[in-house]
Amino acid sequence: MDGTEYSHQSSSWKESKWIRFLTACTIAVLGGFFFQLIHMPLPWLLGSMVFVLIGSKIFRGITFFWPVQIRNTGMIIIGYTLGLSFTASTLAQIGQQLPTMVLFTALLLVCAGGIAFIISLLSGIPFPTILMGSIPGGLSQMVSLAEEMKGIDLTIVTFLQVSRLIMIMFCVPLLIFSPLFHVTINHSAAIAATGSSGGYAALFPHIWLFAVVCVLLALIGQKIRFPTAFLLGPMIGTMLLNLSGYEGHSLPILVLDLSQIMMGSYIGLLLKPENLKHKLKIILLALFNGVALIGCSILLSLLLTRLHDITVVTSFLSLSPGGMDQMAFIAKDVNGDLSVITCYQLFRTLFIFFAVPPLLRVIFQSVMREKRMAQ
């Protein structure tokens, strides 16, 4: 065998999707074990995310591969878990809070717009690009919208959205378990309590019905381009079955841990700082953006506790500028009110999906018109 043939076989081995996927899996599991060992919150989510992110930069000979289908499976599991938290009484409570959801969603988006304006002034980066990178909880929607609009730097938008998501996943659990919120619950015990009711045997036979409905609604949601279809479809299906009398059971801890790895590893591969120009400046701006949004969320959550009889932890997780899946994992750790948290996050997701894009188009057209007139 000559050197050329050996080199070709070596390259082919490294390009195999199975090898790239199994390497990412191994790194992700090691990250989960390490974060569990040092008692980090959400060890399997954060550990897999960080190790896959770092590993993908260290092992440059192998390009990590994480199929979107596995991420979607993790989202279906999370959607099922979220749907179980909805009962008739919680839905009635949510109906009472609908005006508050509208108000606080609007306030959070106004805060995001103000922060984007300040960053734009400080950095010289066009306001539309910074604004689209700052809208909380709308990663997929904002990236898709940025691709359709002229004059938007897609790399900066993606980096700001993903870096904020990663900051939320790290900072929110650390804040929740800090003296600021006075949470003393053993999060491992909380997960065990919510994830082990009856073990695997208690899941059957109804789990088959839930599985079919969850997958079917996820695929239908994707077909009609529903926002985060693989999360919302299963959640809605589980909620309807749960309210109709079919009893769903919490999933075992192992399944919940696997869903964290499925999500964390995918997110870890999204961030590609090597594609950025002026890396240091953009990273500092992303840090400022994330910290400012988290600070606004804390202030708004304190105001929300004055209006409704909910804990500050539930209030903060409801308004945190992350996503429903990440907030749900944290809520299970601290026994937060999943139904309230999910509804606030869901309302903001739907609002961002349906109302924000046309609003942004109007704003950007107005900005472009003023620029042309000034010239």
TrEMBL record:
Keyword annotations of the record: Membrane, Transmembrane, Transmembrane helix
Domain of life of the organism encoding this protein: Bacteria
InterPro entries registered for this protein in UniProt: AbrB_dup, AbrB_fam
Pfam families found in the cross-reference section: AbrB
Annotated TM spans: 21-38, 44-68, 75-95, 101-122, 165-185, 197-219, 226-245, 251-271, 283-304, 346-364
Keyword field contains Cell cycle: no
Phosphoprotein listed as a keyword: no
NCBIfam families, per database record: Gneg_AbrB_dup
Protein's recorded name: AbrB family transcriptional regulator
Annotated source species: Paenibacillus radicis
Lineage: Bacteria, Bacillati, Bacillota, Bacilli, Bacillales
